[in-house]
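Quick question: what would this complex look like in 3D?
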Amino acid sequence: MLRRFGQVATLLALLAVEIPVLVMSLLMLLLAFAVGMVFLFPPQVRLIRVVVNHHRRLVSAWTGLEIEQPYLPKPPPPVRQPDGLYRSDRTLYKTPRIPAWNDRWKWMLTDPATWRDGLWLLLEPLVKLVLVPAFLLRPAWGLRMYGLWCDLLLGATVASRLAGQVTHLTRVRNLAADTQAAEMRRIERDLHDGTQARLVAIGMTLGAAEQLMDEDPNAAKALLAKVREASSETLTELRTVIRGILPPVLAERGLADAVRALAIDSPLNVSVDVDLPKRPEPPVEAAAYFAVSELLANAARHGGAATAMIDISSEGPNLRISVTDDGMGGADPSKGSGLAGIERRLAAFDGVLALNSPPGGPTTVVMDMPSVLPVHWSDGLPKMPRWKVWTVVLLWGTAWCPLFPQGIVTAIFKIFSIPVKSWFLALYLPPFWQWPVIIGMIALGITMYVMAMRLPMRHNGPRWLMEATPRRPWCHK
Amino acid sequence: MSRVLIAEDLYLLRDGLVHLLQAHGFTVVAAVESGPELLKGLVELRPDVSVVDVRLPPTFTDEGLQASLAARKQVPGLPILVLSQHVEQLYARELLADGSGGIGYLLKDRVFNAEQFVDAVRRVAAGGTAMDPEVIAKLLASNARNEPLAALTPREREVLEAMAEGRSNAAISQRLYLSESAVAKHTANIFGKLGLAPSDDDNRRVLAVLTYLNKR
């Protein structure tokens, strides 16, 4: 309780900062737009953001209400053109300073969050004043109200989250495209310099052998033997190239056995523990395989390790791979390019790599790839009990009877006074009961259909709903 | 006259294998091109030896290997020579796991050298083993930190490699230009250093060495 009062007092005391900031911001804004001193605008925005961010942190700490920053991602730095100049709209500049300033200015001006921050600051003293009675009588409730108010204007919006996600996806896409292009170039070079050149040589030697065939059969034979050797070498080389594209074991057996094959081939003593209910998608498998392969090679090459442990497990749709070795540790991702390469590969799947390598070892690398495993909607759900299944079948099988013949069709017969009674139950009753029974039959039929649909739906509950609606990106942190 | 079954999905290679083996006195009882056909042929025809490609229809994964393993489970020791475009220690281990011999695992390139290839087929048919030199090289590489192995002399290591490939003393002596008695001496040394019980039977000796190398 006392703590709450302290927090309330701090909030109120912060007014002493907020009001001067508010006055100053208004002044700067006026100067910026009325007098034309536009250079005052960015510092003004930054000033407000400092105050506002401080409030976000306080509210999160005190009420547990997480308030996300809604700002649009910063503009990327200006790109130097081939002619060495920097471009902003239609003007070219020699230094990146002015284009960068222009970008920043546009970024701040067009971000709705800037104006929501301003509105918040403008109304803030008023809100605090209104909440004073609540602060004094029930501080916990007052703080909660205050938190909700902050969330209203300072929290993230659908647009801001989407914008953030678009930036992230663009970056990841570019990264993936770059990685892929580099791979393609490497493969092209391998084939061009190796296989292709060797095949040309083989063709030439065969031509020479053909010419020698009649004059000097022995020399031709020797050449043919050479060709056979060369073709064998070409195959060996081609195998290496193929291994670099997609290792055959991975294609034939999947991730688990491919990693086991790696473990057997490694000079280290490697134990492998794989717990995957299903095979991941091929691109995920490939990324995981190459990552493990690189890590094992690192452990053997630099770490001086003797044993290693690989653990591959799944948690729902998330894939987690950990590789531990007993080497001397002290691995630094900024030094070798191996770890950076793995990170780039994983980034295409939103995967992250955590490295723990104290000097003296052991080194542990944990890679997490979220939502990459196929999850069928019925996974991990208890099966429906048999009686429920039979009830559903019975409902689907019989609901037509009260709804159509005994309900709707009987109603039509009744309305048009058709003299046929057939097997329509209601028409055999005294006239007073006929309509209630017809309506009751229709209601019964509809209820049975609804039940038949609801039973399985309710059984699967949230999962059913999740699968029935597309994933909303702004719900996915 | 050995009865041989061939499983290979590429027509040209299948045809080539049929001709090659027929020219060397084998009788080809069946030449199949898919996994299910292969399993049926292996179990029903019980050929004296089979030459099987790892990758076969319908899945084009390791269909041939799986069929071979399944057939050897039903008919222990059924001689099978597995061919592949790439060799994996993992597959070699699976083939050797039942310890009954009559197994081969070679790269497809080895077909280029008809004599050696036919020799390997005969060896497998006789209940021996034929492991690709590349498998053995990888096996030794992954055993790099094995101390008894490191204690072998270069010559003994060469003999070990040849022996692990499945060759008999006579074949080793021919290949390394040694007398047979010298090879016998080297093998005795190797078995002593690795702590294995010596055996006169060629096939059992090879299996002992492969088991030792795979034990890690």
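Answer marked as accepted. The first strand of chain B starts at residue 3 and ends at 7.
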